[in-house]
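A.,

Following up on our hallway conversation. Structure tokens first:
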């Protein structure tokens, strides 16, 4: 692919002067339209050392409104970034609706530079390819316009540019012994780049190869390609859907199958034995012992730099808060964080659905506990019509992929569904209403959601079925008896962690 490029292509200066003003003016106009339509854009530049990434990024952004974009220079991960999953530091750079991010180097460094220099294993490279392709598909599905440029120069041109940079005192510092070694090993980097391009050139995120020996040629080609992509996106948006408000006009209709499932006993929830309970004395003795043991587990996780994610989902009034309090009772508060998940903010709705969860993932050695989670999309948002059927159906795959990436990084992922009967929920609702100290816990929305119990139950059943994987299975917790539920959660966390430690 790269060896066959005609790197002699160029544009004469006078011709460039005639092309660039109109082309750059049109680019600026399209930026304004994209901002008005709430279209987020992500443009990344990769290429051989000295291929002109900085210069060509500058050429691209010069005509644009600087209030609408941010340029990121990607360097080797710092200590904070190294303690998190590989793609975490790119998730946090995703632009909001109407804005643009430009990356000087990107998540592709692992697939060619690090692959050559650090001699990464074929398994890690394969896993990274899967994660990147998944990541880019999620960006596309979320409406992010992704443009990927590869800037190509040959070994001779690279050496020539190194010498020019070294000859000037102001730029001499930019060329290191490592750069000269890369020029010496040019063919190895070229081979790795070829393989990377082949593995990640997809229909939803294609690569655009730029012959970068002649700056004017490269400038025109980059802007023309950007203009073409933006024009196509805007054309497809001529009948715009408000991306900032995901609530569709029509609501999803879910068949009412609860009765059949209860009768046959074929569902995951109906198999839960809600009669399970613990006596108070046994509960108190066991709880105290498990809480102290869990504190030791926390210390082990920190020493071994293993992150943990714990997800709590369940029926309203099923006891999520109580379980979390008992879970964290003896933990060192410096080592964990509890994240309560509510309706997304405007900032969160302006980005891909999983963004707000990615940015809260724990670094290595720490624990993050989610009180409700990313599963809201396939439950509340599905039932209440806050997202389209296509969006919640797509979310099953996106969630599995995210959890797989967490596991690949070494994260322990534990997911609990706290299950109670409809009758027990009613009992707890009334108890809250009768208790002045707990009345704040019960809202009109809780009663309204209860009326949709069959719809929610079907959504929960499908969620458990489609997202309980070998690497991140669900644990259904029989929560009719609060003592039993709390002890089961603690025991599951300890056992699951000890098996790994």
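Then the amino acids I'd put at each of the 501 positions:
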């Amino acid at each position: 692919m790269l060896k066959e490029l005609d790197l002699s292509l160029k544009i004469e200066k006078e011709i460039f002067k005639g092309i660039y003003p109109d082309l750059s003016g049109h680019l600026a106009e399209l930026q304004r339209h994209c901002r008005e339509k709430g279209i987020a854009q992500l443009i990344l530049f990769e290429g051989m050392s000295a291929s002109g990434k900085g210069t060509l990024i500058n050429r691209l952004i010069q005509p644009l409104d600087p209030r609408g974009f941010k340029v990121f220079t990607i360097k080797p991960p710092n200590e904070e970034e190294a303690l998190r999953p590989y793609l975490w530091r790119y998730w946090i750079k995703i632009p909001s609706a109407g804005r643009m991010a430009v990356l000087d180097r990107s998540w592709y460094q692992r697939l060619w530079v690090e692959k050559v220099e650090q001699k990464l294993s074929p398994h890690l490279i394969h896993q990274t390819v899967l994660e990147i392709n998944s990541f880019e598909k999620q960006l596309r599905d979320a409406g992010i316009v992704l443009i990927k440029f590869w800037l190509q120069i040959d070994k001779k041109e690279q050496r020539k540019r190194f010498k020019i940079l070294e000859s000037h005192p102001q730029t001499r510092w930019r060329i290191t012994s490592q750069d000269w070694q890369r020029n010496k090993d040019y063919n190895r980097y070229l081979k790795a780049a070829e393989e990377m391009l082949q593995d990640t050139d997809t229909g939803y995120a294609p690569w655009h190869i730029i012959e970068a020996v002649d700056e004017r040629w490269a400038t025109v080609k980059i802007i023309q390609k950007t203009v073409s992509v933006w024009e196509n996106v805007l054309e497809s948006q001529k009948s715009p859907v408000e991306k900032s408000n995901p609530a569709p006009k029509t609501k999803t209709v879910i068949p009412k199958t609860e009765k059949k499932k209860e009768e046959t006993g074929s569902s995951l929830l109906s198999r839960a034995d809600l009669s399970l309970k613990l006596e108070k004395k046994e509960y108190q003795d066991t709880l105290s012992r498990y809480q102290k043991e869990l504190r030791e587990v926390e210390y082990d996780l920190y020493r071994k730099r293993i992150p943990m994610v714990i997800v709590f989902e369940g029926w309203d009034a099923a006891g999520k808060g109580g379980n979390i309090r008992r879970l964290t009772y003896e933990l060192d508060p410096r080592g964990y964080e509890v994240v309560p998940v509510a309706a997304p903010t405007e900032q969160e709705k302006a980005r891909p659905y999983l963004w707000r969860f990615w940015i809260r993932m724990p670094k290595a050695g720490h624990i993050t506990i989610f009180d409700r989670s990313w599963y809201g999309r396939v439950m509340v948002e599905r039932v209440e019509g806050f997202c389209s059927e296509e969006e919640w159906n797509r979310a099953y795959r996106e969630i599995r992929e995210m959890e797989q990436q967490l596991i690949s990084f070494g994260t322990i992922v534990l997911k609990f569904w706290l299950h109670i009967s409809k009758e027990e929920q009613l009992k707890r609702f009334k108890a809250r209403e009768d208790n002045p100290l707990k009345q704040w816990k019960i809202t009109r929305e809780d009663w309204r959601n209860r009326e949709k119990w069959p719809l929610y139950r079907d959504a929960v059943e499908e969620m458990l079925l489609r997202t309980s994987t070998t690497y991140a299975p669900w644990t259904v917790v029989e929560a009719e008896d609060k003592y039993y539920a709390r002890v089961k959660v603690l025991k599951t966390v300890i056992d699951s962690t000890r098996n790994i430690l």
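Confidence is low (pLDDT under 50) at residues 246-266. Curious whether your intuition agrees with the design.

B.
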